[in-house]
Design goal:
- This protein has two domains: 97 residues, Beta Barrel (Thrombin, subunit H); 115 residues, no CATH class.
- It has two helices and 15 strands.
- Strands 8-7-11-12-13-10-9 form a seven-stranded antiparallel β-sheet, with no helix packed on it.
- The longest helix has 13 residues.
- It is elongated and about 70 Å long.
- The protein starts with a helix and ends with a strand.
């Protein structure tokens, strides 16, 4: 390893912000990052949700990790990781971080049907897929200036579309439901898994299916 990488690492130890990788089990501590807030960005999404950052050559942070920057007490997803080279050695990594802005109790549930072994009756309900804390980014359409309004499909009314970005390892599927609060929830309409390595970009729409209530981890139809 080139000595330059080692020298640069010392700068991170002295000046970098302390980072914890919260998506690992157990969590990983002792990492450092240098980041800038792009004050000149003209797009609201970049100003509000994105950080440009760098990591030392020997960092343990990988794409799709969720990290907590202690100094600002915020969680971010690592969207990509690009090497900065010198004489064929990695001396530093450039990364883009997206803010995690889901509320504390957000979760994902999935529609299921359960057959009673005695009566053979089928009951529709909801199965917990991802419980809190869950990390992700909700925003207006990332690649447009306004929230995209979907055309009428299959007799349904037009709905407002929202982008939802999460790590792929959550295993979220189309038709799952994102619950933000007891009165706010969305249907996972489309999943695009090719935009970012290790991440999934999802299109959320209005969910008109039955309301569900979660009690001690069990989910019931109201």
């Amino acid at each position: 390893m080139a000595g330059l990488g080692v020298d640069i690492e010392e700068v991170y130890t002295e000046l970098g912000a302390e980072v914890t990788i919260v998506s690992r089990n157990p969590v990983v501590t002792g990492e450092h990052v240098l980041f800038d807030i792009n004050a000149q960005a003209t797009k609201p999404f970049i100003r509000e949700h994105q950080l440009d950052a760098t990591l030392p050559y020997n960092t343990l942070i990988e794409t799709s990790d969720v990290i907590k920057i202690t100094a600002v007490n915020r969680h971010y997803m690592v969207m990509n990781k690009t090497p900065d080279m010198f004489e064929n050695d990695v001396v530093e990594w450039s990364v883009v971080l997206y803010l995690c802005n889901l509320p504390e109790n957000a979760c994902i549930v999935r529609p299921v049907e359960v057959r009673n072994p005695e009566t053979y009756n089928i009951t529709s309900g909801w199965q917990m897929v991802v419980s809190s804390p869950m990390y992700g980014l909700l925003s207006e359409r990332v690649f447009g200036s306004e929230v995209k309004q979907q055309n009428e499909v299959g007799g349904q009314f037009p709905v407002w579309a929202i982008d939802f970005i999460v790590p792929k390892y959550y295993g979220i599927q189309s038709l799952d439901r994102l619950i933000i609060s007891p009165t706010e929830y969305y249907k996972i309409e489309v999943i695009e898994s090719y935009n970012y390595p290790g991440m999934a970009l999802m299109l959320l729409t209005e969910d008109t299916r039955d309301v569900c209530t979660i009690v001690d981890g069990e989910i019931y139809d109201d």
